[in-house]
């Protein structure tokens, strides 16, 4: 209907009357007709689009060329997408990967997520997630920090921020260049069924879905189920055998997910990606679900262990002390932890 208004196919006066020909052409339900009539009784076409422009919201319909091709294969593809970003630049979803996980990630899960997102950005991927606290926003903020692009898919309208306690964090993400997309109108309130629809959209807009950590029962599994149904690549990051998330990861592996130790593995899984393949083996050497065999200590690992023997320290403190990139230090700390040579206590690491 927005498209018909923009092209002049119908006028606002005609739309308020909703002639039978219009109802038949767009296969409108009684609910859609009544909702639309209420909407156009409160807004004029011009005032509504001025309202959208003030909030940096862009509207894409199924009739627009920018509408993602991957959504057209859905049985119930959303007729309208609402997108909000500081740049108002519509994202390209032809090389996109979803990174999802627990609302309450461990420090290990946080580090692993940041490392895999860095690799995805280096491959030129758009990072997709659900724009919620925990694993979602960790991945999306890391994508921005690495100079990449990211879009959060919402289970409510763009004029809302949910939950209220999370509002400032989500606004900070948006202010720093993160995109937000919703299949629901801006005033739509969060509802359980909308989050399930959001999960399907996350899977549909991505060529692969990566799970950082997951409990045996969580919304993560519905996203992975949607990915499997749509023929998307499902992947999980290895979890330490002592992790509370190891059972959830095991379930996903049994259901057909691949074990991912480097983003470059996705190139082999998705042949349409024409990108150079790095020879880097990832942040896990021959990663397995169980704790891997002893890994020969590198010079950096020796330096880290020597520093941690003096006193417990955070990854940032170690990076500053050794004058090394934080991501490089985190990578080696993960290997040392998997090798049972160090242990975490909150944000601090200490030798065993």
**Any idea what the radius of gyration is?**
23 Å
Per DSSP, the total helix count is 15
CATH topology of the largest domain: Rossmann fold
What best-fitting shape do the alpha-carbon axes yield?
elongated
Order of helices and strands: HHHHHEEEHEHEHEHEHEHEHHEHHEE
Structural class: alpha/beta
Helix content: 40-55%
Characterization of this structure:
With 352 residues, the protein is α/β, with parallel strands linked by helices. It has three domains: 1-54, no CATH class; 96-269, Rossmann fold; 299-351, Arc Repressor Mutant, subunit A, CATH 1.10.10. It has helices at residues 2-7, 12-17, 20-25, 30-42, 45-54, 107-122, 135-145, 167-175, 192-204, 219-229, 246-254, 265-269, 299-310, 315-322, 326-338, and strands spanning 57-61, 80-84, 96-100, 126-129, 150-153, 179-182, 208-211, 233-236, 258-259, 313-314, 342-345, 348-351. The strands form two sheets. The chain has a nine-stranded mixed sheet, sandwiched between helices. Strands 10-12-11 form a three-stranded antiparallel sheet. Strand 4 (126-129), helix 7 (135-145) and strand 5 (150-153) form a beta-alpha-beta unit. Helix 6 (107-122) crosses helix 15 (326-338) and helix 9 (192-204) packs across helix 10 (219-229). The chain is elongated.
């Amino acid at each position: 209907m927005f498209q018909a208004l923009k092209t002049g196919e119908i006028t606002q006066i005609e739309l308020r009357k909703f002639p039978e020909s219009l109802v038949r052409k767009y296969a409108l339900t009684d609910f859609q007709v009544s909702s639309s009539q209420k909407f156009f009784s409160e807004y004029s076409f011009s005032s509504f689009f001025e309202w959208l422009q003030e909030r940096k919201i862009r509207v894409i319909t199924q009739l627009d060329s920018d509408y993602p091709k991957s959504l057209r294969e859905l049985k119930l593809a959303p007729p309208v997408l609402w997108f909000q970003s500081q740049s108002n630049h519509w994202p390209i979803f032809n090389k996109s990967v979803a990174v999802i996980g627990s609302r309450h990630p461990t420090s290990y899960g946080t580090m692993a997520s940041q490392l895999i997102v860095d690799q995805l950005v280096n491959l030129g991927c758009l990072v997709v997630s659900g724009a919620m606290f925990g694993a979602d926003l960790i991945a999306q903020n890391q994508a921005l920090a690495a100079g990449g692009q990211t879009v959060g898919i919402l289970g409510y309208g763009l004029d809302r921020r949910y939950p209220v306690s999370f509002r400032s964090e989500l606004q900070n993400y948006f202010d720093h260049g993160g995109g937000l997309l919703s299949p629901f109108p801006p005033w739509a309130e969060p509802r359980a069924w909308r989050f399930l629809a959001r999960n399907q959209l996350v899977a549909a807009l991505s060529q692969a879905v990566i799970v950082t950590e997951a409990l045996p029962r969580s919304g993560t599994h519905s996203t992975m189920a949607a990915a499997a149904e749509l023929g998307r690549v499902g992947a999980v990051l290895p979890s330490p055998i002592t992790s509370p998330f190891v059972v959830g990861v095991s379930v996903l592996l049994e259901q057909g997910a691949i074990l991912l130790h480097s983003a470059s593995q996705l190139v082999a899984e998705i042949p349409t990606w024409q990108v150079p393949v790095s020879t880097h083996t990832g942040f896990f050497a021959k990663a397995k679900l169980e704790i891997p065999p002893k890994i020969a200590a590198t010079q950096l690992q020796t330096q880290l262990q020597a520093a941690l023997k003096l006193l417990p320290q955070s990854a940032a403190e170690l990076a500053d002390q050794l004058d090394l990139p934080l991501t490089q230090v985190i990578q080696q700390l993960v290997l040392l932890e998997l090798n049972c040579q160090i242990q975490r206590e909150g944000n601090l690491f200490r030798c065993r």
